[in-house]
Design a protein that fits this description.
The complex is a heterodimer of chains A (81) and B (378). With 81 residues, chain A is mainly alpha-helical. Helix content of chain A is 53%, strand content 2%. In chain B, a hairpin with a 2-residue loop joins strand 8 and strand 9. Chain B is α+β, with helices and mostly antiparallel strands and 378 residues long. In chain B, the strands form six sheets. A five-stranded mixed sheet of chain B has the order 2-1-3-5-4, with helices on one face. In chain B, helix 1 crosses helix 2. Chains A and B meet through strand 1 of A and strand 4 and helix 2 of B.
């Protein structure tokens, strides 16, 4: 069910974008166009997060990365002001 | 470790805290004990001390809340964000907020309050997140198997001491980070009257004072010298350096340890280093360099080894003939062994133990004897 798949993919992207905005200074006003997970700013931010949290730096939303995003943590950002 | 942008820190070492309200998950005594234990963790690793107030404004206000709680950064229900805290400062700054949608416990069956409080209070004191998974200041909640044996990691200790220095020396110093070795030297204290240096060098207008695994960085626009781990800027350099000197014409600092030396531009170690000091022309009898200084005007670099010194011509890139010469012959009044040497404003500063000899090369005499740490505004 591609539609169903898209919905799931979208909520995953929401979660990831929220995480990167909260903790890695991803610009909140990212245009829709860069919402795709293979867009450059997102890939760079995913790599920054993976590096900081000691994950394998793939730039992709692999299982380890998604697992970490769901883990309990401190609400203070990891980088930035 | 890292500190908040701009490295905000408390301007005092005695701080007050107040537990404004409580979670229903634990008894008040259990919450009081967890917070006190969390503060003690930082007390033992720094000169900071804390006292509790029960009303009014305290430096660190501790509270439990759910969802939106008045600081525009709402909590998110059970899981994910457990708590947050603000860097040192007035008002909300310094405060720590705990998400009461979590299940707070004294053990690790739920979210351990002591552990999260110790982390959040690290923020209240000025620490940002660490990228070391073993550090308390690592962003993700990672309860240790045995919470009773919790110790700060070396990274946490280095972080808090980069802001506030080490605890005052006391016979029963109990803080020994869990991954340190018992013979590890104490943290050097900047204004210790007996302080000596391993090496001193300029670097692009700054002056670096190396000691053990650390260095102070004196920046002309900042009265307070910064205190860093050598490994923070040069991860590949060993601790306890022997000598360092900047050759301005090459925008390079040469750093010596044992029979090796490195070249660095800023904090970039140059390719092809370390090299043997014997590639500079020293005889095999020279095992290490005690101190080095480069005279920018003369374009000569001086190397001091025990009671003698060599001179290196930066133009021809070779050690000059007629050396070594006795230090006592050409620098009367300067007593070997020399730990470090610095050239500034045409004068030479020889560091030997806790003393520093200011030498005027024109007058060929020692013009002042100072404490070694006089450059650090002690």
């Amino acid at each position: 069910y591609p539609l169903d798949g898209t919905v799931k993919e979208d909520s995953k992207m929401d979660l990831v974008q929220q995480y990167l905005e909260n903790y890695y200074n991803l610009e909140k006003d990212l245009k829709q166009s860069v919402r795709r997970k293979d867009s450059n700013p997102i890939v760079k931010k995913i790599q920054e997060m993976q590096r900081f949290l000691g994950l394998k730096v793939t730039g992709r939303l692999d299982a380890d990365t998604m697992e970490v995003i769901h883990k309990p943590r401190c609400g203070v950002p990891d980088v930035g002001d | 470790f890292s500190t908040f942008p701009g490295s905000p820190k408390w301007k005092k070492t005695h701080l007050t805290y107040r537990i404004v309200d409580y979670t229903q998950d634990l008894s008040r005594d259990a919450v009081d004990a967890a917070i006190a234990k969390a503060l003690k963790v930082w007390e033992e690793a720094s000169p900071l001390t804390f006292s509790r107030v029960h009303a009014g404004e305290a430096d660190i206000m501790i509270s439990f809340a759910v969802r939106e709680h008045g600081d525009f950064i709402p909590f998110d229900g059970p899981g994910k964000v457990l708590a947050h805290a603000y860097p040192p400062g007035q008002g909300i700054y310094g405060d720590a907020h705990f998400d009461d949608d979590e299940q707070w416990t004294e053990d690790t069956s739920g979210i351990n309050l002591f552990l999260v409080a110790a982390h959040e209070l690290g923020h209240s004191l000025g620490l940002f997140h660490s990228d070391k998974p073993e550090a308390l200041m690592y962003a993700l909640y990672k309860p240790p198997t045995d919470i009773g044996r919790f110790r700060l990691s070396q990274d946490d200790v280095n972080g808090i001491q980069s802001l506030y220095g080490p605890p005052p020396a006391s016979p029963n110093d109990s803080v020994m980070p869990q991954d340190s070795n018992p013979t590890a030297p104490e943290f050097p204290v900047m204004c210790d009257p007996d302080l000596s240096f391993d090496a001193v060098s300029t670097l692009r207008g700054e002056i670096l004072f190396f000691k053990d695994r650390y260095f102070w960085r004196r920046i002309h626009w900042n009265h307070k010298p910064e205190f860093h781990l050598i490994s923070t800027f040069w991860p590949s350099l060993p601790p306890e350096l022997d000598a360092a000197c900047e050759v301005n014409s090459q925008d390079t600092v040469f750093i010596f340890k044992g029979n090796k030396f490195w070249a660095t531009r800023g904090n970039e170690i140059q390719v092809g280093y370390p090299r043997s000091i014997h590639t500079l022309g020293f005889p095999p009898t020279v095992k290490k360099i005690d101190a080095a200084m480069s005279d920018q005007k003369e374009k000569k670099t001086y190397f001091f080894v025990e009671d003698k010194y060599w001179r290196f011509d930066e133009n021809s890139q070779i050690l000059e003939q007629g050396f070594p010469r006795l230090i006592a012959d050409d620098f009367p009044g300067v007593e070997p062994k020399i730990d470090a040497v610095l050239e500034a404003s045409g004068l030479f500063y020889f560091f030997s133990g806790s003393s520093q000899f200011e030498f005027d090369p024109k007058a060929k005499m020692v013009t002042h004897v100072l404490k070694s740490n006089s450059w650090l505004h002690c």
